[in-house]
Amino acid sequence: MASSFNENLIKTLKLTNEMLALADEGDRDRNDDTCGIVYGVLRDTAYRLRQLAERECDSHKFKGKWDED
Question: What total of structural domains would you count in the chain?
Answer without folding.
Answer: 1
